[in-house]
Design a protein that fits this description.
Elements lengths: L2 E2 L2 E2 L4 E7 L5 H8 L5 E6 L2 H13 L4 H4 L2 H15 L8 E5 L7 H7 L5 E5 L2 H13 L15 H9 L6 H12 L6 E5 H6 L1 H12 L12 E2 L2 H6 L8 E2 L13 H8 L13 E3 L3
Helix pairs in contact: 2-4
């Protein structure tokens, strides 16, 4: 750990933002970044590299034979630190990637104080929001969708077990039923929009962090390089002020009702997670 002028620098605490796409993780990162003690990355490369190394350690590569568990721990820890090397004096870092829930056990072993913030939203509204993003690209083909598909085909693909919405729902359900659920807080997108002050206060209590007064009128965040890669400009661009969503539902009524029933976080017997749900 780096040395400070008058002593040793305080260790960085890591937390992880996970959950569904189009459910407020970018907005939450923008708000958290207002706190000078925090750094929230938005979607980062840390999980991708972390997962690649984990697969190598567990497979038939030479790495599995050349590194012991202490070395593996140091390498994995170093990946997250390296991705956030520019965190400055931030004491708490929030890394975003929906797939972190796959490696929750390893993250807890590396960062015993870490917590998981699960952002969620009515699945029908998530899919409708993705469809709206697709329709905004008149002369582009977003990498989020297969070309030349019907609405029903796109919805089925998104909601499949390996689709970006269906897979995320499966990860959330599995995590909330698992042994680490006490480390998790579920934040409903509509709850954050309708009661931002109360939601952030409860989040800070869950994180055991000192209260901070956020500005819900003036904030911004974007990830232009990721959006360019996805060929979907503006997908991760957010600007204040914060206000309740009025997005038009682009799905047929029966289809929307069917997707809304997949809100797996609403009824999870035995979970110890904190859940901030919309009415």
């Amino acid at each position: 750990m780096a040395e400070a002028g008058q002593g040793r620098k305080r260790a960085t605490r890591y937390n992880f933002i996970v959950g569904l796409p189009r459910s407020g993780s970018t907005m939450l990162a923008a708000l958290l970044n207002q706190n000078p003690r925090f750094r929230a990355s938005g979607t980062s490369a840390a999980q991708i590299i972390f997962q690649m190394l984990y697969n190598q350690f567990s497979g038939d590569s030479e790495l599995s034979a050349l590194l012991d568990d202490d070395q593996r721990r140091a390498v994995m820890h170093g990946v997250v630190d390296a991705v956030h090397h520019d965190r400055g004096e931030a004491e708490v870092v929030f890394d975003t990637n929906r797939r972190w829930l796959l490696r929750a056990e390893q993250l807890v072993a590396l960062y015993p104080l870490c917590r998981f913030i699960i952002t969620v939203r009515d699945p029908a509204k998530v899919v409708s929001s993705l469809e709206k993003a697709r329709r905004s690209l008149t002369f582009r083909q977003s990498k989020l969708f297969d070309p030349d598909t019907t609405l029903a085909q796109r919805v089925n693909r998104l909601m499949s077990d390996d689709g970006i919405v269906g897979h995320s729902l499966n990860l959330v359900q599995d995590a909330l039923m698992g042994p680490l659920s006490e480390r998790m807080i579920v934040i409903d997108y509509d709850s954050l929009l309708a009661a931002p002050v109360e939601t952030m206060e409860l989040l800070y209590k869950f994180l055991r962090e000192p209260a901070f007064e956020h500005d819900f009128q003036d904030f911004s965040f974007d990830l232009p390089r990721l959006d360019t890669f996805l060929n979907t400009p503006g997908l991760h661009s957010i600007r204040g002020p914060l206000r309740p969503a009025t997005t038009e539902m682009l799905l047929p009524e029966k289809m929307a009702e069917r997707l809304s029933e997949r809100a797996v976080w609403k009824d999870v017997p035995g979970t110890q997670a904190v859940r901030l749900l919309a009415d």
